[in-house]
């Protein structure tokens, strides 16, 4: 079984500021890695390199995933498209089967009655659930969760976390889907996370499940 993501000796700078140095990282299919670290330490840069959105200045980055799904801190929905249309956005071609799958995902995230609503007609928690459904609509080989609970209050945060955990194990995601989660709080870490990494001062180290 080949890794979904492989980084070897990755380094990156912005001007005179080094954000990554000598980073090695491997993510296997079906695994879940949690990435922690202080704000401004390069976590977003590392995610962009992992997913092929940024080419490292040093070292090599290999992405074997054909399909990548993203759930960001902000839902990033198109305001002129309905919930269903936003979920269908990454699906090409948009076949009747793709539409059925999108409706199934909206039902799975508890939004079957909101399929025709525009983002401004939904609450923040609803918009984030649409974002999750959109990420899963492509049946991703790699799912990136970039602090998806930021901005949600306690109950909504817990509900969203449980929803992601349930969807990853009930057939809505492929069994081999690999997950990278960026987290700031211990309570946000997915229960099936099997590897924990901390990025600080440009270096990535395997660590224990504990956050400051």
From TrEMBL:
Record SMART domains: AAA
One Pfam family, short name: ABC_tran
Organism (species): Desulfovibrio desulfuricans (strain ATCC 27774 / DSM 6949 / MB)
Keyword annotations from UniProtKB, A to Z: ATP-binding, Nucleotide-binding, Transport
Name under which the protein is recorded: ABC transporter related
PANTHER family the UniProt entry points to: ALIPHATIC SULFONATES IMPORT ATP-BINDING PROTEIN SSUB, TAURINE IMPORT ATP-BINDING PROTEIN-RELATED
GO molecular function annotations of the record: ATP binding; ATP hydrolysis activity
Start and end residues of each ABC transporter domain: 5-211
């Amino acid at each position: 079984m080949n890794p979904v993501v492989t980084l070897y000796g990755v380094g990156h700078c912005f001007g005179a500021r080094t954000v990554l140095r000598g980073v090695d990282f491997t993510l296997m299919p079906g695994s879940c890695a949690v990435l922690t670290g202080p704000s401004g330490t390069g976590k977003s840069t590392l995610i962009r390199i992992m997913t092929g959105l940024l080419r490292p200045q040093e070292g090599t980055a290999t992405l074997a995933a054909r399909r990548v799904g993203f759930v960001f801190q902000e839902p990033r929905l198109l305001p002129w498209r309905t919930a269903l249309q936003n979920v269908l956005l990454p699906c090409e071609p948009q076949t009747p089967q793709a539409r059925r799958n999108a409706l199934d995902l909206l039902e799975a995230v508890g939004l079957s009655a909101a399929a025709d609503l525009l983002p401004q007609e939904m609450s923040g928690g609803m918009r984030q659930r649409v974002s999750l459904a959109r990420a899963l609509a492509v049946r991703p080989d790699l799912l990136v969760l970039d602090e998806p609970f930021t901005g949600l209050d306690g109950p909504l945060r817990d509900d969203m976390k449980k929803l992601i955990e349930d969807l990853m194990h009930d057939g809505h995601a492929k069994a081999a889907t690999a997950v990278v989660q960026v987290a700031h709080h211990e309570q946000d870490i997915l229960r099936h996370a099997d590897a924990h990494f901390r990025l600080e001062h440009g270096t990535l180290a395997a660590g224990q499940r504990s956050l400051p």
